[in-house]
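Retry 2 of 3 after timeout on previous attempt. Resubmitting structure tokens to design endpoint.
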């Protein structure tokens, strides 16, 4: 899902939060985005400086593939550059090593620009809920924000020489060009917009102002180039195309060479376009009028073959009196405006040049005793290449004779391929980063120093042992490698191959608390166990990491594995291993009985079905204090978190989890030094990370979330002291360092009210609404009815304010929630064992407050409508020959499925239900010979029509819907007021 998700409206989410949009990380949101971000925190728990519990502190990596995306801000006052990293802008002071983070976009930034005086920065993104933002480059504060400039955002932009006008190209199917007046503070839309009718088959990705004439621009894609003109008195942008003759090229195949960049030559009528075949195309006003054009229109007048080996000229820029080219071979060349070469910088050990940007300083010349007329004079400049290297070059390097002296100064190196996994050392400020191209980087997040190791295989999962002695890595080929973190990542033993198939990649790797075991899961639905032991169990053999075996326990995809620890009958710690999958089964593995000889043994007595129709997505051993029960926490794809007693196989609690950002994919235990409270850190499959304060009870004020990456959250880890959380975004090539300050969560809990108040606020209408009044009426009626006097007596009743747990199902159904028998059993267990871990006592009655919490936590986040019934029909009743859903279902087949699938519904019970629904106890009369899904939903169940946006897959997120979804807690998109403070 490239652009995000679409989420159905929740009946639970009705609290009147103040809706605030478009901030992230460290500042309170507001539509003007005028707050200054706090980026100097150290993450200490006591300081309480952050506005959010997670505050972005540093970004490792940047968007290397954006052409002309690195801008040199250096002048006499500072030595800094600007670039974008995923959806964050970064002003990096490379002398001090400090970053100013420009936050606000929720999509990946697609294009950037910088004014000639280096004062103004412009960023734009594409996708749903896109933005165009103007920033002050000195303090990093947004000056102006344009929301949703186009339907799908912006793919290219440029700012005029005087900094007044901005030109943009939309990223829509039918692209448009717009001109914006940046000095008109009352206008929130472009002054002119025109569709690019000339280029429907060639996406336009570049637009440039003429620095000498603000009313002229050039726009092009790979093959179609147009010159544009506009005026303040016109409501349209005019354009004209210049035909290219094949005879202009010396080689036929160059006719199809893609355009790469275009610039205007200052104080002239010329423009120059570069191609991927190494040519420069010169455009100028032609004095010959052919009857099809005007004298002021530019024509192709010259084609220069600069690179005979067809090395691509990837980018062009103007500096002083020079045309500067950045080339595919990593070289930078300077030409005068007659296109004669004046200087070159080669052998720089750079990849394809993506950006060239000069400092705002006086040009420097080489220090000769006598100044030559044709001596190269240029300011220091920054180049960025396709390998994510950002390098500073000086004019003096042109005269250096030794090749090693010609190389520039590397300011920093980003990440050149997608990031698969990260892991943080338990004792040292070291983060390990594994990437798709086979790299393993160990990054000191305090000093910013790093070491690079190129591996033969692609690391997919990495994890440090809790004692810090080992770094375990699982690869895309199913190999397990063990590294020594304290000895330059030297491998400690030969790699172990968990599978003969090279495509069985490792998906997750976990290490036990004793650092003696680790387990993996792979794409072939196998779980593997390793132990530090003697080979073959022979004490004469050295101790090493031994492969205990694997088992393909799940029929379909495994979603998570987890270690746990409990005390056995001898009060000895027993290590436990669990896995959950899309088959809805929880497996436990007998670690004690597993060995190199026995393999990995499944404990069948502890295997259980934990979901009936929903999919579990993540699990973790539930961290409790002095609990007398062994508990495992699982989360599913409908925002429910469940705590299981793994000995009795009973569900101890079901809670409403974070309902923003889709399904939770990862859970990490978070313990903060100096803070006795326990937390969980989580990440979803897309965009969102957050924190949850324990113990779990469904209180929405105990959770927070924010957009960490514009798309996928590839991995997440937390430091052992609880100060920092790290995330990586996969293809966005960025690792984010977040400081943790849980004070805002504590404040939100205090402001949210005590007892059931936060839960009542999640019910439609709150405390004064009809739903809550109905709850009280039904509860009191049930309490009265349960008394021996009966409901019709006039005698004085003695009520204790509690109801038997046997009435839970009836009360839930009375409130419009129809739980299955298994769900009712889970509710009853939850009430019965609510205080069992404290005093080992069971209860069989519950009060109104308990009922409120159970109702909010157990009822579905999304209501069930006709589309869900039709989907169920299409799943259950399929024509085996055509492999297509049946249009109509024979009554006997329908009754057979009801009696055999799921929780059986027999004819007598079905007749009673039909009598209550339609007043016809006779099944044949009520159902007829055939049953249609739509008529069953409408005529039998009386389901009403559901809004179109509720028909989408559950768990998807639609940013446009967030306006009506008050329980969404995005720190960047929509934040509940009590989670901001």
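Retry 2 succeeded. Sequence:
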């Amino acid at each position: 899902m490239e652009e995000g998700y679409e989420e159905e409206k929740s009946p639970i989410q009705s609290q009147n939060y103040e809706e605030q949009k478009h901030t992230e990380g460290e500042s309170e949101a507001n539509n003007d985005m005028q707050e200054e971000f706090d980026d100097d925190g150290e993450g200490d728990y006591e300081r309480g400086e952050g506005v959010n519990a997670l505050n972005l502190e540093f970004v490792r990596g940047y968007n290397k593939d954006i052409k002309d995306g690195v801008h040199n801000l250096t002048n006499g006052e500072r030595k800094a550059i600007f670039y974008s990293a995923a959806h964050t802008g970064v002003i990096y002071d490379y002398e001090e090593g400090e970053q100013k983070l420009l936050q606000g976009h929720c999509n990946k930034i697609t294009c950037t620009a910088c004014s000639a005086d280096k004062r103004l920065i412009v960023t734009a993104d594409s996708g749903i809920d896109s933005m165009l933002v103007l920033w002050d480059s000195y303090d990093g504060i947004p000056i102006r924000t344009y929301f949703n400039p186009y339907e799908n955002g912006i793919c290219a932009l440029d700012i005029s020489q005087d900094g007044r006008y901005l030109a943009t190209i939309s990223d829509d199917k039918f692209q448009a060009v717009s001109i914006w007046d940046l000095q008109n503070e009352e206008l929130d839309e472009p002054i002119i917009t025109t569709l690019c009718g000339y280029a429907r088959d060639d996406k336009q990705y570049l637009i440039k102002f003429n620095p000498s004439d603000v009313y002229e621009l050039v726009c092009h894609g790979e093959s179609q180039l147009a010159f544009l003109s506009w005026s303040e008195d016109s409501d349209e942008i005019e354009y004209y195309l210049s035909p290219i003759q094949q005879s202009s090229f010396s080689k036929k195949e160059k006719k199809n060479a893609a355009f790469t960049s275009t610039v205007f030559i200052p104080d002239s009528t010329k423009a120059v376009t570069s191609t991927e075949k190494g040519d420069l195309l010169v455009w100028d006003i032609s004095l010959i009028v052919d009857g099809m054009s005007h004298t002021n229109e530019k024509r192709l007048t010259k084609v220069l073959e600069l690179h005979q080996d067809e090395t691509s000229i990837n980018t062009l820029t103007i500096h002083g009196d020079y045309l500067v080219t950045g080339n595919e071979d990593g070289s930078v060349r300077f030409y005068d405006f007659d296109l004669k070469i004046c200087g070159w910088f080669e052998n720089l050990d750079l990849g394809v040049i993506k950006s060239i940007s000069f400092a705002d300083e006086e040009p420097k010349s080489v220090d000769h005793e006598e100044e030559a007329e044709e001596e190269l004079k240029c300011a220091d400049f920054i180049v960025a290449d396709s390998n994510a290297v950002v390098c500073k070059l000086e004019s003096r390097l042109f005269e250096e004779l030794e090749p090693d002296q010609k190389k520039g100064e590397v300011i920093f190196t980003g990440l050149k391929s997608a990031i698969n996994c990260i892991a943080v050392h338990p004792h040292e400020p070291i983060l390990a980063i594994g990437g798709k191209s086979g790299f393993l980087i160990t990054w000191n997040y305090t000093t910013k120093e790093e070491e690079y190791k190129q591996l033969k295989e692609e690391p997919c999962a990495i994890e440090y042992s809790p004692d810090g002695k080992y770094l375990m890595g699982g690869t895309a080929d199913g190999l397990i490698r063990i590294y020594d973190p304290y000895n330059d990542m030297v491998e400690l033993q030969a790699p172990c191959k968990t599978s003969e198939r090279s495509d069985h990649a490792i998906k997750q790797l976990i290490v036990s608390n004793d650092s003696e075991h680790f387990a993996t899961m792979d794409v072939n639905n196998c779980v593997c166990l390793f132990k530090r032991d003697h080979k073959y169990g022979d004490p004469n053999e050295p101790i090493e990491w031994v492969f205990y075996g694997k088992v393909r326990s799940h029929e379909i995809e495994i979603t998570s594995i987890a270690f746990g620890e409990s005390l056995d009958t001898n009060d000895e710690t027993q290590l436990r291993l669990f896995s959950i999958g899309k088959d809805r089964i929880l497996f436990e593995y007998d670690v004690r009985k597993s060995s190199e000889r026995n393999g990995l043994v499944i404990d069948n007595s502890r295997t259980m079905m934990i979901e009936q129709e929903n999919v579990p997505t993540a699990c973790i051993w539930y961290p409790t204090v002095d609990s007398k029960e062994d508990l495992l926490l699982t989360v599913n794809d409908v925002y429910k978190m469940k705590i299981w007693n793994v000995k009795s196989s009973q569900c101890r609690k079901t809670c409403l989890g974070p309902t923003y950002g889709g399904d939770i994919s990862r859970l990490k235990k978070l313990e903060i030094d100096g803070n006795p409270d326990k937390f969980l850190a989580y990440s979803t499959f897309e965009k969102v990370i957050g924190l949850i304060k324990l113990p779990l009870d469904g209180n929405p004020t105990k959770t927070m979330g924010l957009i960490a990456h514009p798309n996928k959250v590839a991995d997440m880890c937390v430091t052992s002291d609880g100060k920092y959380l790290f995330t990586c975004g996969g293809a966005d090539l960025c690792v984010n360092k977040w400081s943790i300050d849980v004070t805002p969560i504590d404040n939100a809990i205090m402001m949210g009210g005590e007892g059931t108040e936060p839960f009542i606020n999640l019910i439609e209408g709150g405390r004064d609404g009809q739903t809550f009044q109905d709850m009280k009426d039904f509860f009191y009626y049930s309490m009265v009815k349960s008394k021996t006097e009966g409901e019709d007596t006039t005698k004085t009743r003695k009520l204790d304010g509690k109801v038997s747990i046997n009435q839970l199902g009836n009360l839930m159904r009375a409130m419009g929630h129809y739980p299955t028998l298994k769900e009712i059993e889970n509710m009853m267990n939850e009430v019965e064992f609510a205080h069992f871990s404290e005093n080992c006592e069971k209860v069989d009655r519950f009060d109104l407050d308990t009922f409120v919490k159970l109702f909010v936590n157990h009822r579905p986040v999304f209501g069930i409508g006709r589309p869900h019934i039709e989907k169920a029909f299409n799943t259950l009743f399929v024509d085996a020959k055509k492999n297509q859903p049946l249009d109509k279902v024979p009554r006997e087949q329908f009754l057979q499925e009801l009696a055999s699938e799921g929780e059986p519904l027999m004819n007598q019970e079905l007749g009673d239900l039909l009598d209550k629904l339609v007043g016809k106890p006779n099944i044949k009369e009520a159902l007829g010979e055939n049953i249609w899904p739509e008529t069953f939903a409408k005529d039998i169940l009386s389901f009403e029509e559901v809004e179109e946006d509720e028909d989408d897959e559950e768990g998807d997120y639609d940013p446009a819907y967030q306006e009506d979804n008050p329980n969404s807690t995005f720190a960047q998109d929509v934040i509940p007021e009590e989670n901001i403070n």
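Attempt log closed. The mean pLDDT is 85.
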